[in-house]
Amino acid sequence: MRFISDGVSFVDFCAYVMYTFSVMENCTLCPRRCGADRNNTRGYCGADNTFRIGFIGAHFGEEPPVTGKKGSGAVFFSGCPLKCVYCQNADISANGNGREFTPSELERRFLELGEKCENINLVTAGHYLNVLIPVLEKVKPKLHVPVVYNSSGYETADAVRHLDGLVDVYLPDYKYYSDKLAEAYSSCPDYRETATAAIDEMVRQRPFAVFENSLIKKGVVIRHLVLPESRLDSIAVMRDIALRWKDKVLISLMSQYTPSFNRSQYKQLSRRITSFEYESVLSEAVRLGLNGFMQERTSATDALTPIFETR
Q1: From CA 26, how far away is CA 211, in angstroms rounded?
Q2: How does DSSP classify residue 142?
Q3: Which residues pair with 123 in a beta bridge?
Q4: C-beta separation of 111 from 65 below 8 A
Q5: Which of 10, 31, 121, 202 gives the lowest tally of CB atoms within 10 Å of its CB?
Q6: In a 10 Å sphere around its CB, with 0-12 CB exposed, 13-18 middle and 19+ buried, how is residue 296 labelled?
Q7: What are the CA-CA distances from residue 14 to residues 28, 117, 127, 205 (Å)?
Q8: Measured distance CA(67)–CA(118) in Å, rounded
Q9: CA-to-CA distance for 86 and 269, rounded, in angstroms?
């Protein structure tokens, strides 16, 4: 769908407007399908019918092939369907705060980031896809850098299908294997079945990573954050990745969990992970023949978390 200024018929443009309004009136964009009327209130994700962004600019906290020398052109969208109790971006994810952007303003900023940064990095954007997809369709032909879709993994496969041809690199999380753990920390016992279906579609679109000058241009990189007292669940995640997508994806095994972000009653989240916890998961990933990136344990800090706009 392109805007009417690109030569699209008035009928098609009206159909897009009606679709956007109907989605906002009974929202089913994310797997929660909360049915909120986002024209008058906020959905479970914390978003209403406006584009809210907590940070937009060069970000240097991603994997080296994503960050490069110039940084990733990150766009941190406000709100999130998960509400993880340990989210390091809780300033914007937990309640939907952020500065309002119009679609045309976002188009302009995308093009600016494309000139300054290594890529356009869309962070937690799934609950805005009804508006974001037309923006991408308009801007994508003008970009000379990849579009990165940085996701919690909690997406519908149908939503991901609508991104086919618009996204070059997928960076989904695979947070939990255990339904019990997913319910405790993110209130979504259906996390694994939902995330694996979404990642299946991502892999279908972008099987096998493509690099150029040490920068990733296409592919799927599955991220996993090792949590305290959850190493066996992390090992189960590694095994599932190897079973489903071993030779088609890269992994990014993260050790950056920081207890200062814990907003729960769970005492096990009140400490960092141990060397044993992380290295046992890493050893299993190596044994399984998974390729990708490991994170130094010195990354367990909030130093690389952007300063978000919360107004």
Answers
A1: 41
A2: G
A3: 76, 150
A4: no
A5: 10
A6: exposed
A7: 20, 35, 22, 30
A8: 7
A9: 8
The amino acid present at 151, given as its one-letter code, is: S
- Measured between its terminal Cα atoms, the distance across the chain in Å is 31
| Interatomic CA distance for residues 148 and 181, integer angstroms | 28
Q: Which residues contact 303 (CB under 8 A, 6 or more apart)?
A: none
Q: What is the chain's pLDDT, residue by residue, as a tens digit (311 residues)?
A: 333 334 444 444 444 444 444 467 899 999 999 999 999 989 898 899 888 999 999 999 999 999 999 999 999 999 999 989 999 888 888 867 889 999 999 999 999 999 999 999 999 999 999 999 999 999 999 999 999 999 999 999 999 999 999 999 999 999 999 999 999 999 999 999 999 999 999 999 999 999 999 999 999 999 999 999 999 999 999 999 999 999 999 999 999 999 998 999 999 999 999 999 999 999 999 999 999 998 765 544 544 454 435 44
Q: Which amino acid is at 254?
A: M
Residue 289, SS3 per DSSP? coil
Give burial (CB, 10 Å; 0-12/13-18/19+) of 79. buried
Give the phi and the psi of residue 122 in degrees, each rounded to 5. -90, 110
Cα dist. 16→27, 181, 213 in Å?
A: 15, 39, 39
CA distance 43 to 24: 9
147 residue type, one letter: V
- What is the rounded CA–CA span in Å between residue 89 and residue 245? 29
Residue 147 C-beta-side C-alpha neighbours within 13 Å: 20
Amino acid 280 reads S
The amino acid at residue 1 is: M
Residue 75 C-alpha from the chain's centroid: 10
